[in-house]
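Hi V.,

You were right to ask for the full record rather than a summary. Here it is.
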Amino acid sequence: MSKGRRMKKNHRGEHPASLANLMPAGPGNQRARKHGAYSRYHPPEIIERITPEAPAPDRLEGLIQLEEARLHSLLQEKARWDAKLEYSELVHNDYTLTSIRSDSNSTVATRERPDFEQLIDRSMGRISALVSEKERLAATPAYVAGQVSQLLDKASNEGMTAAETAELFERAGIEATFSVKQRTRAELAYAEPVEPEGGMTDDELEALSAEYAEKAQAESDWLAERREEVQKIHAQKERERVG
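Predicted structure:
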């Protein structure tokens, strides 16, 4: 099928697109939602993630994920279309309806190849714009203050230590507050060092030290006795030489 392919219908209202519009909405259909542009790409449980109550960066993150899913769908659709073209399996529904002209005798529908490239470029542009806006909003003082408040409430409700609270801030990519830093320093200053696994207790260390001291004393006594024996041997040999 070439660009500008024309099809004739003998009766009005029989065009597939027209019939689809007349069919009642099925379960989970999102045609009437504000975000209806996404409804044909995503199930309702994904659409519901875009809630007005969520902070602006969180809503934008939801929109980014939806647009990424839409881009993925477009890429898959293009791959399927190209595969059908290669194996000569394209049918009229695979082409985009561009116009319908009717007269008293017939209806003429004009269809063209979907402009996948333009759709993909637009989707990538929207993702880039959403990411930039999300980063801008995430850096605003009001949003950061709200995130800090949520982290402090979480630490308080879960009974976290100061060090655990500081780690919570690090994982969120937010600098810990001055009070959290001060409490962490004081907590670590009085914390007992953790003994490594398989290490010695104080009693075991004292016993080992006493054993070492005993061995050292025994070696010292042995050296003194050995010196005395050597002196006796030398004295005996000297007497024999003189006599």
